[in-house]
Amino acid sequence: MINEKQKSILEVAMKLFSKKGYHATSIQEIAEKSGIAKGSVYNYFSSKEDLLFSILKYYHDILFEKIVHLDKDPSLPPREMFVKQIQIQLEEFVKYKDYFHMHMREQAGEMKEGMREYFFKMRAQLHNWYEVRLRQMYGPKIEPHIYDCIAILSGMIREYMFYIISENIAIKVDELAQFLVHRIDGIVKSFDVSATTILNKTLMNEYMKTSCAGQSTKIRLLSLCKDMKKICHEFTINEPYFEKASSSIDALIEELEQDHSEPRMIIIEGLILMIEQFNIEALQPLIAEFRMSLPMLTNAH
Questions:
Q1: CB 276 within 8 A of CB 287
Q2: Nearest 5°: phi and psi at 168?
Q3: What is the DSSP letter of 164?
Q4: Virtual CA dihedral for 280, 281, 285, 286, nearest 10 degrees?
Q5: What pLDDT digit, counting tens, does each position of 134-168 carry?
Q6: Which CATH fold topology does 51-201 show?
Q7: What whole-number distance in Å separates Cα of residue 14 and Cα of residue 156?
Q8: Which intervals hold domain HTH tetR-type (predicted)?
């Protein structure tokens, strides 16, 4: 949990990174705009890169906490929940438009390996959330086309956000969220006429393998497990299935940390299946990401 002073520094830095770019902004300038000494910035953040990581994590966590909060409402059918969650995503981008500008600017520029991996993790989390929601809405018929649908939806959101934020065009985000889901309806229906696919599971697995090349697969899987644990802890502790899921995640972490010559895939897959069967909505994107990354664990040995 960050304090008010850290939050203030993050907001100043984000505005400067958005306006000037990461490389053109100095810690001295951030300190001056924050009304503190340069050395005080280092009391909270070890480096400029640490500051950028903190900005990304802080605002990304705000977005996903609000999205996941809706998962706790059992009264919402999948379609209505997806529309509301897209609306939240759009509203948060508008609310924190400096973050959106900075995000787009840094993705377009040259990034260090660690930063590239973090951007990939953020994108993968959003991708897996779309994947879970689309499966819930359309069922098995979307399976061959799900990655194309995610690419189309992501592209539409990004383009409309450019018009709203960069060009200041007045668009109502609640209407836009409904509009986007209607367009996906039409695209899914069109697959009955033409079943051609561009992106498939093989291509996506290759993409994951290349994008994660600089990061240990085991470390990535353990990080996902810890994120699952955090979600279980945040939900009602009195719910017995959250406690059981948490215990299964502990067992999965313990198995991943074992130093076997070959990963015991049967045990790992059994544990992730057990966690999945608790049907905890907020865990589904993380489980999907875990499953996408898991084949690379065997390739690493």
A1: yes
A2: 55, 35
A3: I
A4: -30
A5: 988 999 999 999 999 999 999 999 899 889 888 88
A6: Tetracycline Repressor; domain 2 (1.10.357)
A7: 25
A8: 3-63
The model's pTM is 0.69
pLDDT at residue 214, rounded to an integer: 45
- Could you give the CA distance from residue 116 to residue 211 in angstroms, rounded to a whole number? 9
Q: How far is CA 250 from CA 185, 246, 293, in A?
A: 39, 6, 19
- Rounded CA-CA distance 93/15 in Å is 14
Long-range contacts made by residues 116-125, C-beta under 8 angstroms, separation at least 24?
A: 116/214, 117/212, 117/214, 117/215, 118/53, 118/56, 119/56, 120/211, 120/212, 122/56, 122/60, 124/208, 124/289, 124/292, 125/60, 125/64, 125/285, 125/286, 125/289
Measured CA distances, 101 to 72, 76, 161 (Å): 31, 32, 10
Is residue 293 pLDDT above 70, yes or no? yes
Per-residue pLDDT of 20-34, as tens digits, reads: 877 788 999 999 999
Amino acid identity, residue 167? E
